[in-house]
């Protein structure tokens, strides 16, 4: 029951805050204006997979309501899933920010929230850029950079408000504590996760330069880079996804089983 509650709260919250901006886009029908994006990593931190899946579902439903449903909707939904789960996974890097019994969070906690959400912003931006490049709509650097700037700006602007104001009141209203950090803790898994996130964006930018494409190249719909952009970005995103879903833990367990002390 509690997972259904968390799912519903996140789903409704995203749709409600998205309504005023439903028809505001950076690129009409392809890249929407998303000032509400800071809710996504917060949902992942508070409610884990339930919150992440709710964010992805809300993105799909919002696209359908806005009349912009299409191939890019799937990439935006995947991007929101990565952003939410990434923050969840990295929360242990700073000892967890929701481990206090009274949920009285400080500005330092807000800063931690922003920092652990930044790698997910890179992975999410790369995912949206990958969709545009794969479907030959717009070049990767153009779409990914617009998406990244949107995420970083609004994460920074609203991150403090969410942590200082929204979280304590939400927990108090619901009468229940959030799912606190169960991630692996600081270590090689988190390092690889960050490398995968940053590599997906910067790798795409570097390969795009070989096709004379960058974030400031004038483009029209139908402009794209080349096949190596898709290959490199997809490889880094797959690495990122593998770490998020525990691939490194499985490998270490197999090695421990094969080499008992």
Written account of the structure:
- The protein is mainly α and 261 residues long.
- 69% of the residues lie in helices and 2% in strands.
- The chain has one domain (2-258).
- The protein has helices spanning 2-18, 39-66, 71-90, 107-134, 140-174, 188-209, 227-244, 247-258; strands at 25-27, 31-32.
- A hairpin with a 3-residue loop joins strand 1 and strand 2 (31-32).
- The chain starts with a helix and ends with a helix.
- Residues 180-186 have low confidence and may be disordered.
Number of helices: 8
Number of strands: 2
Helicity level:
55-70%
Helix and strand composition category: mainly alpha
Oligomer: single chain
Shape type? globular
The main β sheet shows up as: 2 strands, antiparallel
- Low-pLDDT segments: 180-186
Average pLDDT number: 81
The order of strands across the largest sheet is 1-2
Percent of residues in beta strands? under 5%
Separation of termini?
43 Å
Rg over CA atoms:
18 Å
In total, how many domains does the architecture comprise?
1
String of helices and strands: HEEHHHHHHH
Blueprint of the fold:
Layout: H1 2-18, E1 25-27, E2 31-32, H2 39-66, H3 71-90, H4 107-134, H5 140-174, H6 188-209, H7 227-244, H8 247-258
Antiparallel strand pairs: 1-2
